[in-house]
């Protein structure tokens, strides 16, 4: 198992209609993202646990791309990865953000 | 932070006629209960994960594959548990099982009906005896709840089926509802093939699996109490009916159950295949049980049960 952590500053506060949300499932080719509103409003954090080693740079790039949209302030994203592809990771992060905004019941 | 999350964790909402089979555990829970009523206990943010999986370098899931909480069903409070079949095949581990044990113990104290949304391949082999102990603790807690007068209803319709220790727990429930897609068996197809050979049971023969372990056969056998279409409204209606009809767990009920099981064994014990059993039960051999439409099957099964009820 690999444990990766990424912190990004300079964020705009996320739209958060709830304290936390969970999306996805830990299955082959999939991942779960638990998002919690626990950080200062200008920071976001992505904490990753993955059984697939050697992809630190890819995770860093995917998370940086997500953070570059700049609207995740105040949120910690905790990920349990089941071996998802980068595009699935991006989709789940975006989905988690929408879930916090209350777009999904 | 409190271990009770409210409002509940998000999952994409299911359309009214969406497939139960295709849904996630959280989707089923949120769609089954009255809108917005679900409150999760020991939710993902509590991070109660399995202590055993790291030894095998396996990923954990924050809820350990078991969603538990409370909600309302037609305005009445129920406790609910749902297994996530896509995480480790929905199999029982120590923490996974403990969440259900805790829910059942609460049900006995609070006298609140319980819904268990089964989807499990059995016990996680990685957790071995811890998983087996979890099954035993659940069965005891379930029977204690029933002895306290609490209906415990099982719903079976997920892609992982209800196998192994999960099927033993299902057998302890007050009532069970199953869909065509659902499967219920103590031993799974691969286990039988491994132990007795493909001549006994060919695990690659999907029609064989479904006509032996599938929802339609189980319903005709009387192994489950209700048959539901593969939709949330159908399972919800079945749950409401089974809660209302839940039998008391007393000696008279046990005696009737034993008599029914003995009769089943006597009448069907020599059938080598489900198709033989269906004929004994009174199905016209020209009717192909797996292939007739849902409504036709419901009508046929109802007629058979009515005929047998009259005969009793």
From TrEMBL, chain A:
Could you state what the record's PTM comment says about this protein?
Answer: Covalently binds the prosthetic group of malonate decarboxylase.
Q: Does the keyword Ribosomal protein apply?
A: no
The UniProt entry's GO CC annotations, sorted and at most eight, read:
cytoplasm
Query: Where does the record place the modification O-(phosphoribosyl dephospho-coenzyme A)serine?
Result: 28
Could you tell me the superkingdom of the organism this chain comes from?
A: Bacteria
Name the HAMAP family on file: Malonate_deCO2ase_dsu
This protein's name? Malonate decarboxylase acyl carrier protein
The species is Bordetella genomosp. 11
What taxonomic ancestry is recorded?
Answer: Bacteria, Pseudomonadati, Pseudomonadota, Betaproteobacteria, Burkholderiales
TrEMBL record, chain B:
Provide this UniProt record's keywords sorted from A to Z.
Transferase
| The CoA carboxyltransferase N-terminal domain, residue ranges | 1-251
The molecular function terms in GO held by this entry are: acetyl-CoA carboxylase activity; carboxy-lyase activity; transferase activity
Kindly list the biological process annotations in GO that this record carries. Answer: carbohydrate metabolic process; fatty acid biosynthetic process; malonyl-CoA biosynthetic process
The record, for Gene3D superfamilies, names: 2-enoyl-CoA Hydratase, Chain A, domain 1 (3.90.226.10)
Can you quote a single GO CC term? acetyl-CoA carboxylase complex
A Pfam family? Carboxyl_trans
Q: What is this protein called?
A: Biotin-independent malonate decarboxylase subunit beta
């Amino acid at each position: 198992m690999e444990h990766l952590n990424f912190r990004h500053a300079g964020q705009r506060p996320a739209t958060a209609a709830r304290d936390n949300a969970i999306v996805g499932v830990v299955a082959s080719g999939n991942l779960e993202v638990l998002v919690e509103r626990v950080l200062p409003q200008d920071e976001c954090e992505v904490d990753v646990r993955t059984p697939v080693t050697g992809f630190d740079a890819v995770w860093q790039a995917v998370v940086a791309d997500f953070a570059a949209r700049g609207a995740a302030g105040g949120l910690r994203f905790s990920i349990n990865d089941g071996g998802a592809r980068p595009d699935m990771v991006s989709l789940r992060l975006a989905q988690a953000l929408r879930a916090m905004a209350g777009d999904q019941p | 932070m409190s271990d009770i999350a409210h409002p509940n964790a998000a999952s994409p909402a299911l359309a009214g006629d969406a497939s139960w089979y295709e849904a996630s555990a959280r989707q089923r829970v949120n769609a089954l209960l009255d809108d917005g009523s679900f409150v999760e206990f020991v939710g993902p943010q509590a991070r109660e994960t399995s202590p055993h999986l790291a030894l095998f370098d396996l990923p954990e899931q924050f809820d350990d594959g078991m969603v538990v909480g409370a909600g309302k069903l037609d305005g009445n409070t129920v406790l609910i548990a749902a297994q996530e079949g896509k995480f480790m095949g929905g199999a029982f581990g120590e923490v996974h099982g403990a969440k259900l044990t805790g829910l059942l113990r609460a049900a006995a104290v609070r006298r609140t009906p319980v819904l268990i949304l089964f989807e499990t391949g059995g016990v996680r082999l990685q957790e071995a005896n811890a998983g087996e102990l979890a099954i035993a603790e659940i069965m005891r807690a379930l029977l204690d709840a029933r002895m306290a007068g609490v209906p415990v209803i099982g719903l079976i319709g997920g892609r992982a089926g209800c196998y192994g220790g999960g099927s033993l727990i299902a057998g302890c429930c007050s009532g069970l509802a199953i869909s065509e897609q659902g499967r219920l068996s103590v031993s799974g197809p691969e286990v039988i093939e491994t132990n007795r050979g493909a001549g006994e049971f060919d695990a690659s023969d999907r029609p064989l699996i479904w006509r032996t372990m599938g929802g339609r056969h189980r319903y005709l056998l009387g192994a489950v109490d209700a048959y539901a279409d593969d939709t949330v409204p159908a399972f919800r209606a079945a749950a409401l009916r089974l809660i209302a009809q839940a039998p008391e767990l007393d000696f008279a009920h046990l005696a009737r159950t034993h008599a029914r099981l003995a009769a089943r064994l006597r009448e069907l014990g020599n059938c080598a295949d489900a198709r033989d059993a269906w004929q004994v039960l009174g199905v016209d051999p020209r009717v192909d049980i797996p292939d007739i439409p849902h409504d036709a099957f419901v009508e046929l099964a109802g007629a058979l049960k009515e005929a047998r009820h009259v005969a009793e």
